[in-house]
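Per your request, structure below.
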């Protein structure tokens, strides 16, 4: 496919998944609004219509919890009940939480990595570059700034009572990398209690169940939802009682960058000096927290299991957290780049395209077709590309973007890809895949012009 055809197809995917004021994550597998998907979607949508991109974030923020949490799913009331599990009826009791948002709409009680401020800032930048909708984009930032600030404050406090700079999660779904080997030991420590039987509609929407998490993993996922609901999503209570309590380095790294974006937004909207001082403090604490989780053996950063009191050693894409956060340590940046280029990731000679698999093929838990256990995720390629660019690694970034785009020229906009064959897996027409393609192609155009 030629670049203009990829753009047209990507725009079509986003149009078809457009539900008016928000975008479903994919046509059948994910019929609701997902939090971090929407942020990436807004980044892509900005190139088509900055107003609509702003609408994507605005809609999500309408369902923000009173404590600042942005829910991981906002449920579509029109989606048939059997289309997704656990759906709105399963989460209904979370609405009893004193922190739940007002109104009748239902959300999940979890959250996901905080890409939103990055997307919000990007909307203004794209508007400025196009010389269109700048006043509206600024107005949008004024409107969302307090909400984004409250979201980051929630993560820095309720999700980090230790002040470690790292975000705590209660469920692998909160990491967005659900069945990654990052969480295997912590998940194995979870003992599943009594709960009703459940069906898995996700398995109906894809050709091969091996592309989705296993039954063993799902039992633990659903049990943890049960635990969180029973605690009425009370953070302090979950801190004491959740059998799964981990520090997530990828979410923490994204938070550092999102705080940088928020600082820029604070500047644009003239936010008070105390806010800015606080955001700067969060940034510093975040980088320090990531520094503390460095594993010199792997040359990567590791998550931490608060329940077991030990690091979660796994060679996955999340290990590049310091690169994503922007590390001030040149020595570590060099190591990370070496690991990224090595056989453990993009240098593996059997890869279809030299783009990083979600889990290193060297990792014992690696499964090339299974979701976050090995496949390449275009959205992660975007995150690494963007991080390389901001780390001054333009050449590497351009190479990664080139191969990542070559992968998408099949026009499937797969959710993820088999790393050795390049086969599209999971859902086709995945919104965030289309969105990152649009952003990359806009970047290609801009670099041709400059
Ligand atoms: C996947 O997660 C959901 C649960 O949140 C699922 O498997 O049902 C993950 O890839 C997650 O990162 C993503 O946000 C979501 C929607 O694309 O799907």
């Amino acid at each position: 496919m030629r670049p203009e055809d990829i753009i047209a197809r990507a725009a079509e995917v986003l149009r078809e998944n457009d539900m008016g004021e928000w975008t479903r994550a994919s046509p059948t597998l994910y019929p609701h609004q997902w939090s971090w998907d929407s942020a990436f979607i807004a980044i892509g949508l900005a190139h088509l219509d900055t107003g609509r991109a702003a609408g994507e974030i605005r809609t999500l923020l309408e369902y923000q919890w009173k404590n600042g949490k942005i829910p991981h799913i906002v449920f579509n009331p029109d989606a048939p009940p059997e289309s997704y599990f656990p759906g709105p009826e399963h989460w209904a009791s979370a609405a009893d939480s004193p922190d739940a948002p007002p109104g009748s709409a239902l959300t999940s009680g979890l959250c996901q990595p905080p890409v939103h401020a990055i997307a919000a800032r990007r909307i203004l930048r794209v508007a400025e570059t196009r010389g269109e909708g700048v006043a509206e984009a600024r107005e949008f930032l004024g409107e969302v700034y307090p909400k984004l600030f409250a979201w980051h404050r929630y993560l820095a406090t309720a999700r980090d009572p230790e002040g470690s700079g790292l975000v705590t999660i209660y469920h692998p779904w909160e990491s967005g990398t659900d069945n990654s080997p990052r969480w295997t030991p912590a998940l194995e420590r979870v003992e599943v209690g009594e709960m009703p039987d459940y069906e898995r509609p996700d398995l109906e929407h894809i050709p091969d169940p091996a592309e989705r998490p296993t039954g063993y993993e799902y039992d633990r996922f659903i049990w943890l939802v049960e635990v969180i609901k029973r605690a009425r999503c009370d953070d302090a209570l979950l801190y004491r009682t959740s059998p799964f309590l981990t520090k997530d380095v990828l979410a923490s790294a994204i938070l550092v960058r999102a705080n940088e974006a928020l600082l820029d937004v604070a500047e644009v909207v003239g936010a008070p000096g105390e806010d800015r001082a606080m955001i700067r403090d969060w940034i510093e604490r975040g980088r320090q927290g990531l520094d503390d989780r460095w594993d010199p053996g792997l040359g990567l950063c590791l998550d931490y299991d608060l329940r077991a009191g030990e690091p979660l050693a796994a060679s996955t894409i999340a290990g590049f957290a310091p690169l994503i956060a922007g590390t001030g340590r040149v020595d570590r940046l060099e190591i990370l780049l070496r690991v990224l280029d090595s056989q453990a990731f993009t240098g593996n000679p059997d890869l279809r395209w030299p783009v990083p698999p979600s889990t290193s093929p060297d990792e014992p838990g690696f499964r090339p077709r299974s979701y976050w256990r090995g496949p390449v995720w275009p959205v992660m390629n975007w995150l690494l590309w963007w991080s390389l660019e901001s780390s001054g690694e333009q050449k590497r970034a351009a190479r990664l973007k080139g191969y990542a785009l070559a992968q998408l020229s099949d026009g499937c906009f797969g959710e993820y890809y088999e790393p050795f064959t390049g086969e599209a897996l999971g859902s086709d027409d995945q919104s965030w895949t289309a969105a990152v393609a649009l952003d990359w192609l806009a970047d290609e155009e801009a670099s041709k012009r400059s």
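The chain has 17 helices and ten strands.

Regards,
D.
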